[in-house]
């Protein structure tokens, strides 16, 4: 018997966790945290526990290190999971970093305990190079091997090809993880697998296409110029991994192209200040910068030309909490034109909340959303009610929204509908079953219709 179960990301885009069973043994693909109100749960302690049997789980395979794919790993270990954590080489470097942060926020402040958990996680990580088969188990009638392929979503992201055998039954199953959009900055686009019998595919943008890269880049430029006209801060809530680096990459390219052109009066692209106010985002930017071999050709070319797409002169990083508080106060008071990137990406916590509290009330400030905002998050509320002059509740208090709200889609690091269709159409031996996960209901239905429209069969929404 070879079967698939889902323990998350079936009624939304968070809490990804899928189980593949081969005979009596199984593996998990991702073990992520729930965010917002998805799955009818909040990310509080009682929803973090692993509420399914894991005695037979032989390994965890991590598609990428976003918290909605790896955030429950400490709880998996606490539940007694003893197997390896299999992931790509860049993910192996990034996973302890992201979990250290998650542990500090949601688990304990006890340094020794954190170190102990991280030590345990490090000892379990097995880094597997892209494109190589790795045997997970091969005993008696049952065997499973996996191969990671580049998913183009964030650094280290992978889709997982599984080759499973139980007696006479042999099956190839692909888990997409999160797929990147083609022409995303920094990373090469995903190439479809040659074949699969079953496919579990994400659908975050199953009902939408993104703008093309150049349009989006110039829209970013226009939004920033417009936002900075009246001074004030442009606040960009951004995930620490992926989106922050993509945005920095694009902003550096705008600076390189428009250098001395005036944004407003004396302010030019060359002297526009960009602040990354997040130790975690800064740390991941450093890791991205180190792992240039995993960049795409375009980005490698820029480095050859002597450019520094992720560490340019106009960039300031704020690590210290004290410096962060000072920056919030200083910028709110002086209205000095500046672009601030801070997490969390959906305004569900983190330093961005302090900026929002200080800045939402002033119309000179602007908030620019560049990523998906899940239902129930403050980010979704600001995006929905902000343009109508509404309010948002932050830490139990109401804040009126007078700052202008903008959105530039596509820095989502997720494939759009056509990209997902192209990915599936590119599989030369198409799957006989497709399970659509990791999307809002509307997105999943739209993608299902699209797949059926091109003659694909066996489409399920679990
Ligand atoms: Zn992701």
Considering the chains and any ligands shown, give keywords for the structure.
about 450 residues, alpha/beta, 7-stranded mixed beta sheet, 6-stranded mixed beta sheet, 13 helices, about 25% strand, globular, binds zinc ion
What's the layout of helices and strands?
Layout: E1 2-6, E2 18-22, E3 25-29, E4 57-61, H1 67-70, H2 73-78, E5 85-87, H3 89-106, H4 111-124, E6 125-127, E7 133-139, E8 142-150, E9 158-166, E10 169-175, E11 198-202, H5 213-228, E12 233-237, H6 243-258, E13 262-264, E14 267-268, E15 274-277, H7 279-290, H8 297-304, E16 315-318, H9 321-334, E17 338-342, H10 352-359, E18 366-369, H11 378-385, E19 391-394, E20 397-400, E21 404-407, H12 417-425, E22 433-437, H13 441-453, E23 459-460
Parallel strand pairs: 3-4, 4-5, 5-6, 10-11, 11-22, 12-17, 12-18, 15-16, 15-17, 18-21, 22-23
Antiparallel strand pairs: 1-2, 2-3, 7-8, 8-9, 9-10, 13-14, 19-20
The structure holds zinc ion.
> Which ions, cofactors or small ligands are bound in this entry?
zinc ion
Q: Residue-averaged pLDDT, rounded?
A: 91
Query: Share of helix among residues?
Result: 25-40%
Percent strand? 15-25%
Radius of gyration: 22 Å
- C-alpha geometry: globular
- Output the structural class: alpha/beta
Instruction: Give the oligomeric state of the chains in this entry, treating copies of one chain as homo and distinct chains as hetero.
Output: single chain
Residue windows where pLDDT falls under 50 for at least 5 positions:
37-46
Distance between the termini: 19 Å
Count of helical stretches:
13
For the largest beta-sheet, the strand count, sense and barrel status come to: 7 strands, mixed
